[in-house]
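Residues determine shape. We examine one folded chain.
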Amino acid sequence: MASGSEFKCLSGDLPSASELIAGISPAIVTCLAIAGCVLLTTVTIFWTQVRYLLENTPKPYKSRTITLCAIYQIVSVVYFIAMIIPRFFLLAEMIAVLTFGFAAYQITCLIIDYAGGETNFIKTAGDNALNMRVPPFCLFYGCLRNGEPITKGKFIFIRILVGQFVVVQGVLNITMNAIYVDDPNFYNSVRFYFIPFVLISLLSCIWGLNMITRMIAPHFPYYKLVQKYFCVQFVLLMCKIQPTIADMVVSNVNFPCHYPLTPHVYKNVVVNLVILIQMMFLSIWAIKLYRKPLKKPQVHTVYRSMSITASNLSVNTVNTTVDYM
């Protein structure tokens, strides 16, 4: 008959924070120390750059810019807590997913602000501005159009595609967290039934982001919209894909288990440390993208139009002089 610790290993139970600290190993201590340094670096980099962003970002973009640069610190903090409190992992994932959803809607609004608003972009965009045949639905040739005019209604449709992510994922994640708190074993048996709903919501959000980014980015290359979009999307990819792959590895490989240091504990510590390091680099990349002054394109456009007008006037003057002679 299996002992209590062996039963907990077989069932995949995670230890409490007190159990983890009581049986902590040098490897876990090393990972926690590295994670603490990485988290401190990420937070420090952000706070040292906030003043510059506040002083140099134009007022219409200021609040969204600061928000999009701050999401990496939020994700880093919750995953560091999940390293110390193993049973916090599902709540940490929920916070990270909802943070991405909030950031996705913020960058959608910021992209529209860069374009001068919906009304202004509709006036200046061409008849084939909107391409609905973009990833992840780029293979639906019979259902989606390759190019069509953009309208207010289509802007609302894109906002709904992106905005639904927070609502749908919030409901799904709260439900999963409630099930996990009530019975972790029952959660492990039913969590796969949530996957179709999670995927539909996720793919719809990515579709909306791709449409708005690909539509507006060619008109405003100076703003580096594609890079800013990927900087947000990588948050979701790193916080969802890596833990899923690690779960598959732990579930299919027989690792030695000595409770409370179970394979799932080591998996959580390693994956969370990797995510913390990735958030640090993403934070550096985001700040570098948003530090660029945003008023330059307008000045360059004015000077370019003035030079073109002047050159046209000079050419017309020469032609008139030749005809007169």
Notes: Confidence is low (pLDDT under 50) at residues 296-325.
